[in-house]
Specification:
Blueprint (H helix, E strand, L loop, with lengths): L13 H12 L2 H13 L3 H29 L3 H11 L7 H33 L8 H12 L2 H20 L2 H10 L1 H19 L2 H9 L8 H14 L6 H6 L8 H29 L10 H12 L3 H35 L3 H21 L14 H28 L2 H8 L5 H25 L4
The chain binds 4-fluoro-L-phenylalanine (PFF).
């Protein structure tokens, strides 16, 4: 029999799990990555594919991850090994856990660099740096930050230390507390920003850009990016949600909790898009700004709106918190594994993982300035890490999870862990996990490399 409680602790309530999983899901992926990828890929059609991926692939895989985590009650590697053993399957499934630990580590390294940008912007806003800013000035401000390796390093370091500190304190005292108040506040502030966009921006142009699909603009690679974004934003395919699931009590409904997390995450991404594009169009900027999009666009709004100094500062503070609660979950699978297998203390394991991710992050931040000449597949280190993880490793992890739960576990174990009434919802979910998700991932992969 698997343990009913993880050695790392357990969430105090189901709501705590929802908040923590939402904390993991909602982060830079929603507010920084979603708008800029949508901007780079032409808007509406991309958003539609993204939403389809969220519903048809993301939601069912999230349920599969949570049910696996809760059944194994350990780090993703050991969870996969344990469940595989129970089901009489190969130890090779532990590989899924390893892919996850690797992906989390790689994501954390550049995630911390971008979160560092947000940290820097807290102080730029707070010190009145956005006052009187126009579009050109805003681009210059952002460019100047990227050009300074010292500044980027300082912010990256601070963020990594912040993350390690929370993770070192453990599941309850650390992870739970960080999310309970800040998530709702972030949503509130986004709503205020959307209100500003409605009043002052080219709101309808923004809405059209986001929701009017033009499929002729959609390449096979864009479909891969949309799917990658769905995985990235929901924290799927690398065991983050699985490890959080392992701290979930046995009674909680996997379907309802997943639905709540997915809904919250999608809401935040769409709100961010609705806030940003109208401001962007009003300023005459092009949507294809790349990773600097929100850092160039939002200061323009804060420069003009009443009390913009305060709103701007609070916004970037909340963005840092959103990134923080996500970064925590990036590191957690690796830390849980080190604690279990090498008997390291939580503090030591966290320090170790954070230190290596920090080192790799230095490579990522140097690729923005000193090393900008070095590229592979036309990408610098930061872009490469982002592309490799979001578009390849996470969907690959998701594919393996879908195969495992859909095809290798017995349906009886799946049902007993899911505890869903055997009706329409269950049948639909099982169909999505067995057929739709793995086939869709495979087809998108093959199309992106030009095989089909
Ligand atoms: N979901 C996070 C975001 O949208 O910012 C990023 C992330 C966290 C990805 C945890 C993957 C993960 F396991």
């Amino acid at each position: 029999m698997p343990a009913t409680v993880s050695i790392h602790g357990q969430w105090s309530t189901r709501l705590a799990f929802i908040l923590a999983a939402t904390g993991s899901a909602v982060g830079l992926g929603n507010i920084w990555r979603f708008p800029y990828i949508v901007g780079d890929n032409g808007g509406g059609a991309f958003v539609l594919v993204y939403l389809a991926c969220i519903l048809l692939i993301g939601l069912p895989i999230m349920m599969a991850e949570i049910l696996l985590g809760r059944r194994g009650r350990q780090s993703p590697i050991n969870t996969m090994l344990t469940v595989a053993r129970e089901e009489g399957l190969s130890r090779g499934w532990g590989l899924m856990g390893w892919i996850g630990v690797l992906a989390g580590f790689l994501i954390l390294s550049f995630y911390s660099v971008i979160a560092g940008w947000a940290l820097a912007y807290v102080f730029k806003s707070g010190s009145g740096g956005f006052v009187g800013l126009d579009a050109e000035g805003s681009s210059e401000l952002f460019g100047a930050m990227l050009a300074s390796p010292e500044a980027l390093l300082a912010w990256h370091t601070i963020f990594m230390v912040m993350t390690a500190m929370v993770v070192a304190r453990g599941v309850r005292s650390g992870l739970e507390r960080a999310v309970t108040i800040l998530m709702p506040l972030l949503v509130l502030l986004l709503v205020v920003l959307v209100g500003y966009s409605m009043a002052q921006g080219e709101f309808m142009a923004g809405v059209q850009f986001l929701f009017q699909p033009d499929f002729s603009a959609l390449s096979a690679n864009a479909v891969l990016l949309a799917m990658g974004q769905a995985f990235f934003t929901l924290s799927l395919g690398m065991g983050a949600i699985m490890v959080y699931g392992s701290y979930l009590s046995s009674e909680a409904s996997v379907a309802k909790t997943s639905g709540a997390v997915v809904a919250a995450d999608t809401l935040v991404a769409l709100l961010a898009g609705l806030a940003i594009f109208p401001i962007l169009f009003a300023a005459g900027l092009s949507p294809g700004q790349g990773p600097g999009l929100i850092f160039v666009t939002l200061p323009l709004a804060f420069a003009e709106m009443p009390m913009g100094l305060y709103f701007g500062t609070v916004f970037f503070v909340l963005l840092v918190f959103a990134a923080w609660t996500s970064a925590i979950s990036l590191i957690e699978p690796a830390v849980a594994f080190l604690v279990e297998n090498l008997s390291l203390t939580r503090v030591f394991a966290t320090t170790l993982v954070a230190m290596f991710a920090w080192l790799l992050g230095i490579g990522a931040l140097l690729s923005l300035n000193v090393w900008s000449g070095y590229t592979l597949f036309e990408m610098g280190i930061l872009d490469l890490l982002d592309y490799l993880t979001a578009n390849i490793l996470l969907p690959l992890g998701g594919f393996l999870i879908a195969l495992f739960v859909g095809w290798r576990m017995t349906e009886r174990s799946v049902q007993s862990e899911l505890r869903l009434k055997l009706g329409f919802v269950y049948s639909l979910w099982y169909f999505l996990v067995r057929y739709v998700a793995p086939i869709a991932i495979l087809v998108v992969f093959l199309r992106a490399v030009g095989v089909v």
